[in-house]
Amino acid sequence: MTSVTAPAKKPANPNFSSGPCAKRPGYSLDNLKGAPLGRSHRAKVGKVKLKRAIDLTRDVLGVPADYRIGIVPASDTGAVEMAMWSLLGARGVDMLAWESFGEGWVTDVAKQLKLKDARILKAGYGDLPDLSQVNFDNDVVFTWNGTTSGVRVPNADWIPADRKGLTICDATSACFAQRLDYSKLDVVTFSWQKVLGGEAAHGMIILSPRAVERLTTYTPAWPMPKIFRMTNGGKLIEGIFVGDTINTPSMLCVEDYIDALEWSQKVGGLDGLFGRADANTKAIADWAAKTPWVDFLANSEDIRSNTSVCLKVVDPAITALPDDKQAAFVKSMVAAVEGAGAGYDIDGYRDAPPGLRIWCGATVETSDVAALTHWLDWAFANAKAELA
Predict the structure, then answer these.
(1) Is the pLDDT of residue 1 over 60?
(2) Are 387 and 1 in contact (CB under 8 A)?
(3) 12 near 367, Cβ under 8 Å?
């Protein structure tokens, strides 16, 4: 067997992980020299930094002035759990799932909170549930962008303005890349490690006035762990939303997040970030359109993610293989690309169908995405030759 010649050019930054994501172009640890290391986060210098992170978040994302923004523990997972444990149970809830993280929220509601008034609307990888079937008299929990399926809701038009329930949106791979309509969202959560390539372990929660009203007028039936508490004596703990965090944050991570937000402003703010992610995804789409062995996992263009771009191998010789052999084929491709130093962490998520997952958020350069596609062709051709 003759191996295919490797491409001449590699991505300048081969990091395509879907979380933690690539650091911004021009990133340097020198940018973090202003971090108040060794100081208390409750000291004035710490509070100033935490408040700046919140204020920059509002500015870059365009969050309405009457929405609260808080820094919370345990990444996006902690923020979603905080919202569900604090807010659900006041009325029925519709749980939407079309990939593994949405499935996780379903499991927590069904098996941990044990809500009896829960409706579950599911779709397989590549599709969305029928959004017209959502009952907005209930609370609704959903992911805006399915990180492990590459499927996103196309917009917020399916959410009515006069809904009775709350909408709780896990937007961790959508914030800073996809336009969120905050008037339709009562809770928005994300983590620093996703679209802006921040460091892990910290989450953000954004609350509408309707969510705040629920918090201050409803007490869940279950015991509330301290790490989830946003009220005290029926009143909102306002300090959470100006930088008084529930537990100790890393001031180095805070500085890193501030650096990413300031970079966002320099590249044109939200529109600039959208444009970069869209250009990266277009590079994948243009390549896929002329490449017969690959296609998007998302079954229609209007629901394709522009951040966690998920792909499947559609070559008939590969799809005819048993599932385990298809998975092994993809893993051999991934190993070859990583071994060449041309692209790291591009394997599909462990619970997803065998395939590739390429992060195309704003911190990735389009030239690197384009270079990666040549290496994917190379890896596919060599892996297929091995089957002959």
Answers:
(1) no
(2) no
(3) yes
Which residues make Cβ contacts (< 8 Å) with residue 141, sequence separation at least 6?
Answer: 84, 88, 93, 94, 95, 96, 105, 109, 168, 170
The model's pLDDT over 354-380, given as tens digits with 9 standing for 90+, comes to 999 999 999 999 999 999 999 999 999
What is the rounded CA–CA span in Å between residue 367 and residue 369? 5
Each residue's pLDDT tens digit, 291-338: 999 999 999 999 999 999 999 999 999 999 999 999 999 999 999 999
d(CA 261, CA 272): 12
67, burial (CB in 10 Å: exposed 0-12, middle 13-18, buried 19+): buried
pLDDT in tens, 107-165: 999 999 999 999 999 999 999 999 999 999 999 999 999 999 999 999 999 999 999 99
> Measured at the alpha carbon of residue 309, what is the angle toward residues 359 and 106, in degrees to the nearest 5?
100
314-322 long-range contacts (CB < 8 A, ≥24 apart) are 315/380, 315/384, 317/384, 317/387, 318/293, 318/384
Q: Which amino acid is at 90?
A: A
Per-residue pLDDT, 135: 98
Q: Match 């590079």 to its residue by tokens.
A: 283
Domains, the chain, in order of start with CATH, read 35-265 (3.40.640.10), 269-387 (3.90.1150.10)
Q: State the sign of the Cα–Cα–Cα–Cα dihedral 131, 137, 143, 149.
A: negative
